[in-house]
Structure formats: structure tokens, C-alpha cells
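#lab-general

N.A. 3:47 PM
ok so I finally got the sequence cleaned up, no stray characters, all 119 residues accounted for. can someone with queue access submit it? mine expired

B.Y. 3:52 PM
send it over

N.A. 3:53 PM
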Amino acid sequence: MSVIRINGMSFYAHHGCFDTEQTIGTRFLVDVAMQVDTKQAELSDDLNDTVNYADVYQVVKQEMEKPSHLLEHLARRIASAIIVAFVSIQGVEVKVSKLNPPLGGKMESVSVEINQGIC
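B.Y. 4:20 PM
back already:
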């Protein structure tokens, strides 16, 4: 078993509980780790024998375009969509970070990380 990671996918989106977050939006980072059997791809050097990172990015992008109030909900949606779209993925870990959250003080980010499956 191998872990394929896509780190630091950056999106401008409209997730949050406050009206300003839903109206103005902010920056988000998404990290995904997928547990995949890559034995065939290791031998064949063929993209068809593994998970195409570009296709995973498109799934994440589609989910980021649908507003959510909670990062927990968003992260679960992303994880579920990846598992449904790619049958070869046996487990997935998704971390969603909201940059510069409006919490009344200076901070880099808040984040939620969830696991689905074996990963």
C-alpha cells in the first residue's frame, strides 16, 4: 500500500458561519492523502494504473465551489466525493485550512482533518 498526497491546493471560497464569510469569501488550503495500491503502476509506469492527481484536484475543486457553514462538513464532503469517484482509493485523509479566519485576533489558519477508510 502507498500513500499519494496532494498538498497545498489553494482555493478562494465562501465557507463559514458568518454572513461576511459567505459573501466576501476567503482563502483555503486543502491537503489530501490517499491510500492506494500502486504495485501495478510501479511496474508499468502507466498513469492508467494509478490515481490521476489532476482528476482528484477537479473533484476537490467541485466540492470547494459548494458553500458550507462548517469546515467539518466541507472536509467530509471532499473525502466522500474522492472515495466515490476513485474505486482504487482504499482510504483518504482530508485537511481543510481556512486562512486568516475572522476570530478577533491574528492567526494563520484554523483547520479540520478527517479520515475515511483505512488511511
